[in-house]
Amino acid sequence: AVLIIVISVMTGFDRQLRDKILGFNAHLRIMPRESSMTNCPAVMARVQSNKHVKGVSPFVLCQVLMRTHPPFGQALSAAPWVRGVDPAAEARVSNMLTNIVEGSADLDRRGILVGREFAQGMQLMVGDRVTIFSPSDIERMEADMKAGRQSAHMPDDYEVRGIFDVGYYEYNANFVLTSLENAQGLYNLNDTVHGLLVELDDPELAGIVRAELHPQLGPDIRISLWTEENSAILEAIAVEKNVMFYILFFIMIVAALCIL
């Protein structure tokens, strides 16, 4: 009974962790090997033609410098990852926009969503405004200073519209969501994106679907699996589960010998 209970608990924990990971990340991530994806509609059409694909969403992922504007006290700075999403398509590949614990999932104009741990660390609440510096903003400011210009380029302010909680600390503490248009503007991508997120009808088929999509997309496209991006923690749980099984199995043998 102890052996069955412990292995069942470990299996349930493994399944719950997978649900948390897949609630933020899709089953496949498709990205060009160099620069950005310029032919996004064509690639999306090819991916959606696969029978196991449930949804496809374009994304922009970039690291920025963020600075708060508190009503009193000292301003705080952090360097989160900004993920630009299309709200309509994002709902088909993740549950990010449904895990809002405060505010709303409004990303119109200059709206952003922050994780619960990130909001606590930066002392942010719904309605607060922050300044986001992209690498191009910093480069332009450095150029203005070197040229001796009095009026330096100032980045745009964004408003915190909502706070999300996906149940996974790493995502809550390090990611900020905004609209696809805002993220493209931060990195001067125009109409291009960094890649596509793909949701499948069965996450265990990710390797098979990747093998089917590779010939259609060509060698310039890289496809990564959700298991590869989270391999460290998934392997650690698998090792712990196996060790617990062997330890309890030997304890069961000792108990059986004692009874004998």
Task: Explain this structure.
Helix content is 44%, strand content 25%. The protein has 260 residues and is an alpha+beta fold. Helix 1 (2-24) packs antiparallel against helix 10 (231-259). It is globular and about 90 Å long. It starts with a helix and ends with a helix. The model has no long low-confidence stretch (mean pLDDT 86).
Question: In short, what is this structure?
Answer:
The protein has helices at residues 2-24, 40-48, 87-90, 116-122, 135-147, 169-174, 180-186, 206-217, 226-229, 231-259; strands at 28-32, 53-63, 65-68, 77-78, 81-85, 100-103, 111-115, 129-133, 157-164, 175-179, 195-200, 221-225. The chain has 260 residues and is of the alpha+beta class. The longest helix has 29 residues, at 231-259.
